[in-house]
């Protein structure tokens, strides 16, 4: 098992912790965390791992910080 810190932004925070450390299985990928939090993949616009652009299938390591942003609108 390993620990990753997950930071959610904007509408993804609704009904969820905005910043929490989760224990997940070794070899888990970013998509596994997204699924665990019941976030629709289509609702993820920006995914960062340790502040760097990442994709859904990047394998996580113990101590990683995963930041998840929804699409943002504005004018």
From TrEMBL:
Name the Pfam families for this protein. ThiS
InterPro entries per UniProt: Beta-grasp_dom_sf, Mopterin_synth/thiamin_S_b, ThiS/MoaD-like
Q: Cross-referenced SUPFAM superfamilies, in alphabetical order?
A: MoaD/ThiS
Q: Which domain of life is it from?
A: Bacteria
Q: Check the record and name the Gene3D superfamilies matching this protein.
A: 3.10.20.30
Kindly provide the name given to this protein in its UniProt entry.
Molybdenum cofactor biosynthesis protein MoaD
